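COMPLEX REQUEST
Ligand: adenosine-5'-diphosphate
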Amino acid sequence: MEEIKKKGKFIVFEGIDGSGKSTQADRLVRYLKSKNIKAVVTNEPQSDRPVGMLIRQALKKQISFDEKTIALLFAADRLDHIQRISEKLDEGFWVVCDRYYFSSFAYNDTALNKEWIISVNSEAMNALKADMTIFLDIPCDISLSRVSKRGEREIFENTERQNRVRNNYLELFKRFKDDENIVVIDGNAKQNIIEKKIADKIDELI
Ligand code: ADP
Ligand code: TYD
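STATUS: Structure written out below.
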């Protein structure tokens, strides 16, 4: 896949489960619109596309796959997603995305060597990098108390996994700091305060 030429900007939210990504992604879209910037929100895995729907079923334990297969499904869903994202970027929209390839690196690392999961996402990395990746950092116990309010737990929603995922993210950000624009924000604050910090960072891109 060739590198995508962007008219709009591509902003990604990352974080462990319940870190506030979808809340802040929605708020960011509202903020951009208030500045007369065309903006849309999207998320991975996609809920309205075949591969993403398969993943959603696996997350809810309705079907099971081994870890390597799941990792490949996430990568496939991402390439499919990039087609849709690029159309929007080409129309001049800013696209705000809840999760992208760092989620794969941070979550889908068990039983596999880390380089393999990075390599299966190399197409996406070459085609479309985020203009800014915003990592909402929260402690794992806060994550689990927030997600437990949502009802039945998904496959990755346990303390041990969330801890490992958070550490993976922090390690990855050190590794990719020269290639990616990563902003770490304390997600354990009031929603308005987080929104303001994000807006200040985003203003640097406008
Ligand atoms: P994610 O998309 O990262 O899973 P959500 O935005 O869905 O996270 O938030 C998970 C839950 O935590 C929701 O019930 C949401 O209302 C709540 N929440 C989000 N941000 C905060 C915050 N800063 N403080 C307290 N609760 C929050
Ligand atoms: P999501 O619905 O964003 O969960 P949450 O709102 O709780 O943050 O993502 C679903 C789950 O899928 C989440 O546990 C993270 C996991 N995931 C991966 O394992 N690999 C990936 O590449 C992506 C995008 C998500």
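REMARKS: The longest strand covers residues 132-137. The beta strands are 10-14, 39-43, 94-98, 132-137, 182-186.
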